[in-house]
Amino acid sequence: MSAASGLEATSATEAPALEVLEPGPLALVEDLGRPGFAHLGVAPSGALDRGALAFANRLVGKPADAAGLELLGGGFRARFTASRWFAVTGAWGAVRLDGRRIAPDAAAHADAGSILELGTPERGLRWYLAVRGGLDEQPVLGSRSTDTLAGLGPRPVAAGRVLRFGAEPEASVPAFDGAGAPPPDGPVTLALRPGPRAEWFTDASRQALFDATWRCSPAADRVGVRLDGVPIERRVDGELPSEGTVPGSIQVPPSGLPVILLADRPVTGGYPVIAVVAEASLDAVAQLRPGQPVRFRHA
Question: Carboxyltransferase domain spans which residues (predicted)?
């Protein structure tokens, strides 16, 4: 046990788990979501940066869809009650185990009583923590993901929460398979596909969507990200009946400022969708920081 933890050794009978000491701004249990329930009004939810969660799971020898933690910003602290391999991916910054800085995007081993701390990200916005064995939370509709809009799945993680680990896989921890690239700290370019209501907007506005440089607004969460810039003008006035949405749909509300809908979005919306962010670009949206420049290209 590390002396840095200032805690007594965990008893041998204590179940292997992660005791959350400080959750940071928002800590959620997420896997790759619960697709296939839109007809019931249930969004897929799941990790916003799906690639980062899958990578973290691969580093500790777990399937890509195993449940881990999605951690917004910095300030997360937790204690391992038993020795366990883990990995932190996604955002880029200071990751410390018992006070010593360790490399992100690599498997690391914690002893019983070890303290894990995540600093404020220097790049990106969301960390992903995977542990060997995954998190043994109760699934809802086949997923352990937290849906912040609908309130489905595990509740948001608070200080004092004890997250039990699942059984360790028989396979050994795989050899290090290369570091992931840190999220960019400059302009981010997202690929777009045509939206179902593009004709509701003027030709000039449709072109401006690609010509302009937008900025990620502070009005951003797991439901959607608003972009600041010159408002988009509509050609067709009036209301649009509610219709289905998919992850990455870019709705344009009356303000004219586009909103990229994400994993916890409503499954229907009443604003016209001018375009849709291609699936390959959605992970980058999860890591956008307030004020970060955003440009679009045709997919």
Answer: 39-299
Enter the pTM of the model. Answer: 0.92
Q: Are residues 88 and 202 in the same domain?
A: no
Q: Strands of 17-23's sheet, edge to edge?
A: 100-102, 95-97, 115-118, 76-80, 17-23, 162-164
DSSP designation for 56:
H
Residue type, 143: S
Q: Is residue 67 part of a domain?
A: yes
Q: Tens of pLDDT along 31-72?
A: 999 999 998 999 999 999 999 999 999 999 999 999 999 999
Tokens in use for 270?
Answer: 């009443």
**Sign of torsion over alpha carbons 201, 230, 149, 76:** positive
**50 and 138 part of one domain:** yes
CA distance 253 to 98: 47
Please check whether residues 15 and 90 belong to one and the same domain: yes
Q: What is the domain extent for residue 96?
A: 3-164
